[in-house]
Design goal:
Indigoidine synthase fold, binds manganese (II) ion, 306 residues, eleven-stranded mixed β-sheet, 11 strands, alpha/beta, 12 helices, binds pseudouridine-5'-monophosphate
Length: 306
């Protein structure tokens, strides 16, 4: 049977939050099931959820659970995703297939944005978005296109230096995605705080971010508002060290013949090895910081959130 709308199932906690008008922050699940190794994925899940709750908001992990698009992955289902038991990486193109085949699907930024739009959730936090790849400029993450058609505030630490960052920023401009730097006037490099890529908008005010989103909705713009902040200074890595790690990782990927959806997880794991695990600590710290900022924005946005 073909499902009919509303197709996205809300967990009890998320449904209750929405009914009472409490702020909700959506999270992706691909970072838990593919992006981070065990047990760091468990720590990421806990740190993000605590950071959101500490601000009085409710977390909602997006996923396809045995074919059911869900906001609020939890309990035994979440456990399966953390153990990566037969869990597929699901980007925008894979959503309908995962639903029709009853699969467990960990949603990327692209697929999570599609579910946020369908469930009318307005604030989403992630680590870094996908973008234009360095050695294969035709390999451009579906995250970019979905950002152009998902009216969701998306908080991230930029995009990883495994990507072509200048090309990624250019594509965001072409696609009409507003990018605001929070406490930075540069597009951050995920592991690194500085990239030299200037932003056209920057603020230190959460209220200003909420105002910009309200203006965007009033203008009838269909796109996301991408909020970028640098990774926390204590855990951020040095630019030169990351450059060397990425160069090595790209060479490894070339030799191993890695292509398509496997590229991003492969490069992340290779960078982790090359930095002696310090990239992992940076990753966890920035995920927590992004979840916290997203929660502050969701609280500020108030009624519009639900
Ligand atoms: N950035 C991270 N960790 C991740 C990803 C990005 O720090 O796990 C994931 C996100 O889910 C993102 C996806 O949406 O990788 C992009 O994959 P692709 O390039 O195949 O679109
Ligand atoms: Mn790709």
């Amino acid at each position: 049977m073909i499902p009919t709308p509303p197709i996205v199932r809300l967990s009890e906690a998320v449904a209750t939050a929405r009914q009472s008008g409490a702020p909700v922050v959506a999270l992706e699940s691909s970072v838990l099931a593919q992006g981070l190794p065990e047990p760091a994925n468990r720590q990421a899940d806990e740190r993000m959820r605590l950071a959101i709750a500490a601000r009085g908001a409710v977390p909602a992990i997006a996923a396809v659970v045995r074919g059911v698009p869900t906001m609020g992955l939890a309990g035994a289902d979440l456990e399966r995703f953390l153990r990566r038991d037969g869990v597929h990486k699901v980007s925008a193109r894979d959503l309908a297939w995962a639903v029709a085949t009853g699969a467990d699907g960990a949603t990327t930024v692209a697929a999570s944005l599609a579910l946020c739009t369908e469930a009318q959730l307005r604030v989403f936090a992630t680590g870094g978005i996908g973008g234009v790849h360095r050695e294969a400029p035709f390999d451009e993450s579906a995250d970019l296109l979905e950002l152009s058609r998902s009216p969701v505030i998306t908080v991230c630490a930029g995009a990883k230096s495994i990507l072509d960052l200048p090309a990624t920023v250019e594509r965001l401009e072409t696609l009409g995605v507003t990018v605001i730097g929070y406490e930075t006037d540069e597009f951050p490099g995920f592991f690194t705080r500085h990239t030299g890529l200037a932003l056209s908008a920057s603020t230190t005010s959460v209220a200003c971010i909420a105002d910009t989103f309200r203006a965007q909705v009033a203008l009838g713009r269909p796109s996301a508002l991408l909020v970028v902040q640098a990774p926390p200074a204590r855990e951020a890595l040095d630019g030169l060290e990351v450059d060397a790690a990425v160069t090595a990782a790209l060479a490894e990927a070339r030799v191993a013949g890695i292509r398509g959806a496997k590229v991003t997880p492969f490069l992340l794991a290779a960078v982790e090895r090359a930095t002696g695990g310090r990239s992992l600590q940076a990753n966890l710290a920035l995920l927590e910081a992004n979840a916290s900022l997203a929660a502050a924005i969701a609280v500020e946005l108030g009624a519009l959130t639900g």
